[in-house]
Amino acid sequence: MSEKTEQQRLTVFKTYKLYVGGKFPRSESGRVYEVTDSKGNWLANAPQSSRKDARDAVVAARKAFGAWSGATAYNRGQVLYRVAEMLEGRREQFVREVAEAEGLSKSKAAAVVDATIDRWVWYAGWTDKISQVVGGANPVAGPYFNLSSPEPSGVVAVVAPQESSFLGLVSVVAPVIATGNTAVVIASEKAPLPALSLGEVLATSDVPGGVVNVLSGRTAEIAAPLAAHQDVNAIDLAGADEGLAKELEIAAADNLKRVLRPQPVDYFETPGIERLTAFLETKTVWHPTGSLGASGSSY
Amino acid sequence: MPPSAPASALSDVTASDSTLRRFLHGLPGVDAVGLEARAASLGTRSIKTTAKAYAIDLAISMVDLTTLEGADTPGKVRALGAKAVHPDPTDRTTPTTAAVCVYPDMVAVAKEAVAGSGVKVASVATAFPAGRAALEVKLADVREAVAAGADEIDMVIDRGAFLAGRYLKVYDEIVAVKEACGTNARLKVIFETGELSTYDNIRRASWLGMLAGADFIKTSTGKVAVNATPPNTLLMLEAVRDFRALTGVQVGVKPAGGIRTSKDAIKFLVLVNETAGADWLDNHWFRFGASSLLNDLLMQRQKLATGRYSGPDYVTVD
């Protein structure tokens, strides 16, 4: 009897939604598009974001920027590590989603997910070390201290890699937020489901709402208004093809956004700190020391 | 809406406390569910492209740019005045705002800051925002502001007296303030709808204010939890429409507080057009009491002009 009811049970399908400002809205436009696995079988409907969703995401990211960039680097490291903890608990789900999305065997997908979780941990460790590496005291010939310290650029639009829907995604998002930026992420157009599920993980970690915003849909449609947006400070073009990247770079020039051009990356390799430093500004201050007497400082 | 009394009938209703009470309590009760549903459905209108551009410019021209803080300095008021005259210095086609709204002691500073631009100076008075002071004190407050050159006076009613049912006291106070305003200053009467508890009370207060000679009726001070909402503004728009139908006198409406986005502002303009009519779509008859709204309107205006989203870096911080 119980076996029979088991068979008759209807599967509960998941409604994939965007992740904006810590909430899970549908697209403002009400549109969805079909997401299929590598063999063309239907997997789910994903929201097809419009430019207004992009605008709302920027507002959310800007709102979150003050608190996130103001948090101590140590605290940000703890929060990012917490994301890895939450991912570990959902490992099975992500293995399935990555296997379906990228047409990988279960064991290969598991390797991808493990590498992804390790990537979060790797970047979590960098949060309170990056400023020692790229900042510091500069030698000057004069009675001054001259100190440089890195500061986050602001709101960063991230065009996530198209092929590597999960490892690639995390490899470009984690460095952006590790240094205190907030991100508006455009998920892989063909395989957005791991990214949308990542939103659920972030919502249950300690990452404040708005720090990462995930949009799915047609990459070109969402990226164009973000590249032209006057309140976006930088854009990572990792997932844009050559033609689109050129267009976006032109649009981004208008308010002098920082642009990270697409480049061939093996996401399984341990990354360097290039993606961490890509979205940092260097603040340099001069501090007069005065003349030093026998007792130390003169003031 | 009020019983189809001839206009002359209204001259009797303020004869005594009891006739005034009978009139105000004789106003039809407000259908709260219907009111909220109507306000919500009018809020779903889609206003795009050229209509949106028109609405944004109109809304900018209707803003009473307000600063009512204990920490207001002459410098801040001057900055506000400059912003009212040139809301977007990078685009001189931007209309000026309707007025700047300040405390009475800042009227002279504001007046100087907007001199020659056509921007009016409004001043809150009558022991704003609580309205808890003796009548003489309130009148002195008004006279001070008018003497300093205020073009408009925003008074608060005595909510305590209103809620206690002493309508004639409230009425007399408005009449006295109106008199103190003289012939040059227009009077806006603030009901603080958030403290009036019911829609029926808002309707009664609207009629009371208009009977007493208000040039504008205004929702709120912006200092309490509930400020201007679409339903209470819709209710007041119905009141001014009915009052004009009955007496021929047109009264303005000013929602204030809590209107922060262009989208909200455009929803209010739809309410105005659909309720009171196009006659009110002018800054002589409709105003927004707001401060942060103007920045959002300017960002939307820039978006329409350039096609790309603007950001808070491109408007002033105030």
From TrEMBL, chain A:
Domain Aldehyde dehydrogenase: 28-259
SUPFAM superfamilies linked: ALDH-like
Entry keyword set: Oxidoreductase
Pfam families from the UniProt entry: Aldedh
Superkingdom of the source species: Bacteria
Entry annotated with the keyword Oxidoreductase: yes
PANTHER family, per database record: ALDEHYDE DEHYDROGENASE-RELATED
Name of this protein: Aldehyde dehydrogenase family protein
Species for this entry: Streptomyces glomeratus
UniProtKB/TrEMBL annotation, chain B:
Reactions catalysed, as given in the entry: 2-deoxy-D-ribose 5-phosphate = D-glyceraldehyde 3-phosphate + acetaldehyde
Keywords, comma-separated and alphabetical: Lyase, Schiff base
Record-given protein name: Deoxyribose-phosphate aldolase
Protein family according to the UniProt entry: Belongs to the DeoC/FbaB aldolase family. DeoC type 2 subfamily.
The protein's annotated pathway: Carbohydrate degradation; 2-deoxy-D-ribose 1-phosphate degradation; D-glyceraldehyde 3-phosphate and acetaldehyde from 2-deoxy-alpha-D-ribose 1-phosphate: step 2/2
EC number: 4.1.2.4
Keyword Cell wall biogenesis/degradation found: no
InterPro entries assigned to the protein according to its UniProt record, in alphabetical order: Aldolase_TIM, DeoC, DeoC/FbaB/LacD_aldolase
Enzyme class: lyase
